[in-house]
Design a protein that fits this description.
Radius of gyration: 16 Å
Number of helices: 2
Length: 208
């Protein structure tokens, strides 16, 4: 029997590309800044459930590395779920983040040729206005600062109608800190030139 699920909350990501990441305006059809893209997408669920399993408060991060042309596939990827989540919540999140959940993130599944599994570690996720940071000790240290809008003070410049699975509208940001050391993916840059995004998300799906 299929299981209905829902999840809403906050997301942020940074990658190894210079700002502005070419993947977003070109739908992954143009090469990344380097001969690869190394990216982490972090999520904090504020409301939702997977069948009878509540998901409020669960945090998780999807890591991936691709070649320069992301749309060509051949990614390797892994998932970290917060250590405070229950085993049932972790299993639900793994489905939601993959093909089995039949949700928005399932669009990545055909691009992943090497899935390296799930790890459990404490994850901190903080959002204060247009600043968002995520940390997993020794594994991830990301912080982004939104690009302030001159026409709407307090808001960020955003890009709309994207094909991004999290939200078609993304706030533009630059990475203040950008360190990844997970699943064989290693990257560190503190120049402030790397790309970032953040947005709210609100998903529903039905897992087989």
């Amino acid at each position: 029997m299929a299981t209905k699920w829902s999840a809403k909350g906050e997301y942020m990501e940074t990658c190894s590309c210079d700002f502005l990441c070419p993947c977003i305006p070109k739908n992954m059809s143009t090469p990344a800044t380097h001969d690869f893209c190394k990216v982490a997408l972090a999520f904090q669920i504020t409301a939702g459930n997977f069948g009878a399993v509540p998901l409020e408060g669960v945090r998780f991060v999807m890591f991936a590395q691709s070649k320069a042309l992301m749309g060509a596939g051949d990614w390797f990827s892994g998932l970290v779920v917060d250590a405070s989540a229950s085993d049932e919540q972790s299993a639900a999140v793994e489905l939601i983040a993959g093909e089995g959940g039949a949700g928005p993130l399932a669009m990545f599944s055909p691009l992943i040729s090497d899935y390296r599994g799930v790890e459990r570690h404490p994850i901190s996720f903080e959002k204060k206005g247009n600043e968002v940071s995520v940390k997993i000790d020794g594994i991830l240290d990301h912080a982004v600062l939104g690009v302030e809008s001159m026409s709407s003070p307090g808001s960020c410049i955003a890009i709309d109608e994207t094909a991004h699975p999290v939200n078609k509208r993304l706030n533009l940001a630059s990475a203040v800190r950008n360190m990844i050391n997970a699943f064989g993916i290693q990257w560190e840059d503190h120049s402030g030139n790397n790309n970032g995004h953040f947005a709210a998300f609100d998903w529903t799906g039905e897992a087989a």
